[in-house]
Amino acid sequence: MLNRFQLARLRAFRKAAWVEQRFGGKSEEAAARVLCVASGKGGVGKSVLATNLAVLRAEQGERVLLVDFDAGLANAHLLLGVVPRHDLGHVLKGQASVEEARVEGPAGVSLLSGGVGREILVNPTRRDLDRIFQVLRPLEQDYDLVIIDHGAGMGYATIAHLAATSTLLLVSNHEITALSDAYALYKRAHAVNANIRVGMVFNRVPGESAVDAAWARFRSTSLKFLGHAPELVGWVPADEAVAHSVQTRTPVVQAAQDSAASRAIRQVASWGPIDHARTTRAFYDQARKALR
Ligand SMILES: Nc1ncnc2c1ncn2[C@@H]1O[C@H](COP(=O)(O)OP(=O)(O)OP(=O)(O)O)[C@@H](O)[C@H]1O
Ligand SMILES: [Mg+2]
User: Fold this and answer.
1) CA within 13 Å, CB half, 107
2) Could you give the CA distance from residue 11 to residue 5 in angstroms, rounded to a whole number?
3) CB atoms within 10 A of CB 270
4) Are 52 and 46 in contact (CB under 8 A)?
5) Using a 6 Å cutoff on CB, does residue 286 contact ligand 1?
6) 251, 244 in Cβ contact below 8 A?
7) 153 — alpha (psi -120 to 50), left (phi > 0) or beta?
8) 255 has pLDDT over 50
9) Whose CA is closest to 122, among 149, 157, 96?
10) Hey, whose CA ends up nearest to atom 15 of ligand 1?
11) Which atom of ligand 1 is nearest to the CA of 49?
């Protein structure tokens, strides 16, 4: 006899098979837009940005799901001030359904946590990822926007997502080390997905002149060696209000709405391509295909 998780999976599988047959692989029900937030170097502010963007978009009335795919080292739940009882690791092991793992955060954002210190998610195999994508696929119907917070670097899981997404926010600071790693990720993203739209955000920068210099360097290198460059979406200053909001586990856009960081993040949240971040077929179907 099937348990309820196996039953749910079977139902999702049957539905996907029906959609495949009926619409030739294109699910008309796939509603969510998907935005990946990634960086080459660690600690540059992906999770701060992803959580605050999720909150801002939810405040505007969108149904937002934040997937913390820094699996095994997740911390979006800390930044949102929620305590998930289950995470993607439990989901992958069949110990919880996605419905049980989802928690509601500020402004009604749904969070799926990647779990902390959970071995199974640190180095997921292709099979693990395929299972996670399959389980997440039905959620696309429930949300307007899915924001995916990635771990730093070019891990297999990140690249699989980037191969499928239409839109990526690439986060960096102004330092040469972060820029170099961001360039490597940008190049790789384009190698696996020629149509990807990439917006660059500089975070934790001392001021405009540092951004100008960093952007000029990044842009000219990209144009010279790749023949294209990302768009500059905006920059967020180094701001005490962010550090304070992290400590108090409240997103800065709620804790200090008029801070310089909040104003800058609001500008990033209004980046036009987020409103059009759709692929021709459902994102998680595309991601599963990218694994093959
Ligand atoms: N604009 C900012 N001003 C001041 N401090 C910041 C700013 N952005 C981020 N920080 C600080 O940097 C820390 C790291 O940020 P965050 O966790 O978002 O980075 P990350 O890129 O997600 O890191 P990881 O690669 O480990 O996932 C935060 O805890 C916060 O204290
Ligand atoms: Mg992070």
Assistant:
1) 24
2) 10
3) 13
4) no
5) no
6) no
7) left
8) yes
9) 157
10) 45
11) 18
Cβ neighbour number for residue 176 with a 10 Å cutoff: 10
Distance 7 CA to ligand 2 centre (A): 33
In the chain the domains, ranked by start, together with CATH numbers, are 38-291 (3.40.50.300)
Residues 6+ apart with CB under 8 A from 275: 33
Please state at what angle helix 260-269 crosses helix 240-248, rounded to 10 degrees: 80
Which ligand is closest in space to the CA of residue 185? Answer: 1
Task: Average the pLDDT over 242-251 and give the result.
Answer: 98
Residue with tokens 């170099």: 180
**Rounded to the nearest whole angstrom, what is the distance from the C-alpha of residue 265 to the centroid of ligand 1?**
13
Token pair for residue 277?
Answer: 């971040």
Q: What per-residue confidence (pLDDT) applies to 30?
A: 58
pTM of the model: 0.90
Number of C-beta neighbours around residue 24 at 10 A: 8
What residues form DSSP beta bridges with 37?
149, 169
Residue with the two structure tokens 């640190």: 122
Structure tokens at 117: 């210190």
Report whether 261 contacts 236 (CB < 8 A): yes
Which atom in ligand 1 lies closest to the alpha carbon of residue 41? Answer: 25
Question: In whole numbers, what is the pLDDT of the chain averaged over residues?
Answer: 90
**Geometric angle at alpha carbon 193, from 192 and 196, rounded to 5°:** 145
Has residue 12 got a pLDDT over 80? no
Amino acid 73: pLDDT: 81
By the CB criterion, residues less than 5 angstroms from ion ligand 2 are 46-47, 70
Dig out the tokens for 263 from the structure.
């104003």
- Tokens 């939810």 belong to which residue? 58
Under 8 Å CB-to-CB from 7, ≥6 apart: which residues? none
